[in-house]
Amino acid sequence: MATPITPAFPATRLRRLRRTASLRAMVTEVNLTPANLIWPVFVTEVEGAEGEIASMPGVERLTLDGVRRAAERAARLNIPAICIFPHSDQALRTEACERAWDPENIGNRAIRAVKETVPELAVMTDIALDPYNANGHDGLVVDGEILNDETVEALVKMALAQAEAGADILGPSDMMDGRIAALRGALEDAGHKDVAILSYAAKFASAFYGPFRDAVGASGRLVGDKKTYQVNPANRAEALRCVARDLSEGADMVMVKPGMPYLDICREVKDRFDAPTFAYQVSGEYAMLEGAIRNGWLSRDVMLESLLSFRRAGCDGVLSYFAPAVAEILA
Ligand code: PBG
């Protein structure tokens, strides 16, 4: 798009249109509404684990009843979707990860709880083995190697169980190759043709996920790192190839993750593919901002400003732990 030519000062005084709130409103280019938000919530099956997460002040692990209340709150605030992250019993995490596709695992119970309480609220899930894996990885690990194709088979089972429980949107966050095609095919075959896939397409191997790993109880368990499957933060072209690949395999929507340090990728994904594009303002971004807000170093306005930046970068929506607080301000 061409930059419009403006005549020289004083014919052009860009401050003219900033003078009053009305004038500023008239020339506002992007907006943020609750419809742009997806609210990630943590649900625990472990007695005593509910409550605030130390590295994410203001964010709690919820019980199933807490998830029901969160669903009602989301609906009240016009947030269209909630995304469920399970905190499972550590003692039941195994190397084979079989609880990931157990219809009675805590994630699937939470999906059903939300759909029973607020049927119209969209429920999104996370597809990756880490919440149920003894070693904290998103895939099956054998002799120190994260297996790709065997993991995809496990993810398909996990996805079918989530679809069966009533999930509207599946969010594969595992970064295995070939998973989108495998999931799409299995969903179609099982009669879940309308279950959507929001692929974590450009997911970087980031240090900003630290607080999330505390929240789901994966910190200290992760053996090694996730660099053999998540994208190198230095790689823009590779991230775009991931998005192209996932769209070609049948992803309905794509995500860039983390968010704020990767706004360049968001813009480029939107411009190139013009598909529904989301970003994840991840736990570390939340912790930085909320920590500074709580210390009085930043005003709460940074919540709105940070989310608006995603809209400006071309995102249709954002997964953010600020979702309910921001929706309350916007109401
Ligand atoms: C794991 C998963 C992660 C997040 C969402 N799904 C962590 C990871 O990849 O280690 C991070 C979300 C956040 O930091 O808020 N499948």
Automatic annotation (TrEMBL):
SUPFAM superfamilies: Aldolase
Superkingdom to which the source organism belongs: Bacteria
Coiled-coil features, chain-numbered ranges: none
Stored Gene3D superfamilies: Aldolase class I
Alphabetical list of InterPro entries matching this protein: ALAD (IPR001731), ALAD_AS (IPR030656), Aldolase_TIM (IPR013785)
Catalyzed reactions per annotation: 2 5-aminolevulinate = porphobilinogen + 2 H2O + H(+)
Keywords: Heme biosynthesis, Lyase, Porphyrin biosynthesis
Family label: Belongs to the ALAD family.
Subunit structure: Homooctamer.
UniProt-recorded name of the protein: Delta-aminolevulinic acid dehydratase
